[in-house]
Specification:
The two termini are about 25 Å apart. The longest helix is centred in the N-terminal third of the chain and has 22 residues. The protein has a five-stranded parallel β-sheet. With about 300 residues, it is an alpha/beta fold. Helix 1 crosses helix 2 and helix 8 crosses helix 9. It is built from ten helices and eight strands.
Amino acid sequence: MRYFDLHCDTLYKVCTDNKTLNSDECEVSVAKASAFSDWIQCMAIWLPDDMDASSQINLLYNAHNRLISESELCGIPVVFDLSDTSISNRGFIFTVENCGFLDGNINNIQFLRDFNVRMATLTWNAENCIGGGAYAQHKGITPFGAECIREFEDSSIIVDISHASDKLFYDVSEIARKPFVASHSNSRKICPHRRNLTDDQFEIIRKNGGLVGLNFHRDFLSVEPHKASVKDVLLHTEHFLSLGGENTLAIGSDYDGSDIPADLDSIEKVINLYEEFLRIGYNEQLVQKIMFLNAHNFFSIF
């Protein structure tokens, strides 16, 4: 099985709880992913809203250093350019969740360039220097945020609007010159949570050639989170596919950063989702697109 995951918070757990990328206490580990023939894992470092910019930058530094050292220990490279055919079929991609650390200084984007960050989630839940997060719905993009979008695109840093306010989403859609992604967001039609995407938002991402990663967090899967299961992921998948999302859908698990149903709560259990896709009649080509190919193709050409 081939697996490409657009978002997990395992690196944050490694940094703050002093774990390793092979810790059995993490939902994502090298050992648990050993059954995958191909495995590309986006490793996000979450920068909490309540941290000041200096502390966020320190955490970003530490995360980069830990990811490099851990990747050397486990023999899985940190990659930037997936179009490079010499790259192994297993690799980590460094990403950042929350750009508040930029603190209104465009020169701080150099940290992302220096660390080969491939994707940047603009906000977390609050408002920052870029614009409004999911819990600041009335806030759109700032003039500084608009400048950052251009710099990200010029630096081949993928813009991620998961956690964005609706207003920020639409502002980005008007400014962006390249496709952007929602790395870990579900359908608001299926589960009406502000962190999920409306049909219109999904259509904009789809038409622009972007990606949407299915999120396994209970609260984003079902209006009855305590009952959430792999079958709820199927409901979101079915709905997005009904909107023409065959080439748009991917996986953005949110492992090690959320509350995940028992039948999916560790990376080796992704096989349960794979088997459910096949059980309900998805052909192998479609399953491969959702589980690996759509994300790999996008990262290879962006």
